[in-house]
Design a protein that fits this description.
With 235 residues, the chain is an all-alpha fold. It has helices at residues 9-61, 67-70, 74-77, 84-104, 109-112, 118-123, 128-155, 160-174, 179-189, 193-210, 212-234. It has one domain: Glycerol uptake facilitator protein, CATH 1.20.1080.
């Protein structure tokens, strides 16, 4: 990706549009999750987690831009390209909020909107800020694992689809905090200063968790090169 100043207007517009579409898919996935929890009681969370993962699969298949997915590129993209993260997050949120409006005025509203009340429970829990940080770190780690499956699963002879979906199912089922998805839930229950703070903490946690595997991968590459150089020197 070229630095911001070298992008054409069409390229920048395409990036924003793909980020918006990604937000819509997260909104649709989050809506399916809430609806499933309403309809299927005990099994609803597991079924909803599987439905939510389809949103991420669509994002990967059509190469949409998701904030938590771009985080995995941070160590290699260079500081000049870090502008992509806030721009992507903004348009992800616009897409999610657009979906929230559509859902609120659809026939699903009575079943979906009340289910988002669990976010209020998180906001009023003891040490909610610490819990939000830890939860979002775990989410960021699993998102990177999911995105990485696109490249690594075929090398191991594994299904890319399963590799992408399974970490998402785990994070959704465990209730780990995804900063973009949480925007949908807060849109249903209402925003406050505490919910905004919660989202900002989730953004930080998603970043911290999301860069772990890429940094480890870079370190492994560096150590392998160093070993190869030492072997050549010894020869």
């Amino acid at each position: 990706m070229k630095p911001l100043e070298k992008l054409t207007k069409a390229q920048f517009a395409s990036f924003c549009l793909m980020s918006f579409c990604s937000g819509v898919m997260i909104g649709v996935g989050g809506t399916a999750f809430l609806l499933s929890c309403n309809l299927y009681a005990t099994w609803g969370k597991l079924i909803g987690s599987m439905m939510f993962s389809l949103g991420i699969l669509a994002i990967v298949m059509f190469e949409m831009k998701l904030f938590t997915g771009l985080i995995s590129d941070m160590p290699e993209m260079g500081a000049k390209n870090w502008w992509r993260l806030p721009v992507c997050f903004f348009w992800n949120m616009v897409g999610v909020l657009f979906t929230a409006v559509l859902v609120r005025y659809s026939t699903l509203a009575d079943k979906v909107v009340p289910q988002a009340e669990f976010m209020n429970e998180k906001l009023h829990a003891n040490l909610w800020h610490v819990k939000a940080l830890c939860s979002s770190i775990l989410c960021g780690f699993l998102i990177t694992l999911s995105i990485g499956a696109v490249n690594y699963a075929p090398r191991k002879g594994l299904s890319t689809t399963v590799g992408v979906m399974f970490p998402i199912i785990v994070f959704a089922f465990c209730g780990f905090d995804h900063s973009v998805a949480n925007t949908l839930y807060f849109a249903f229950i209402g925003f406050s200063w505490k919910s905004v703070a919660y989202l900002l903490i989730c953004v930080l946690g998603n970043i911290l968790g999301g860069v772990v595997l890429p940094i480890l991968s870079l370190f492994r590459t560096w150590s392998n090169r160093a070993k190869a150089k030492d072997d050549q020197t010894n020869e």
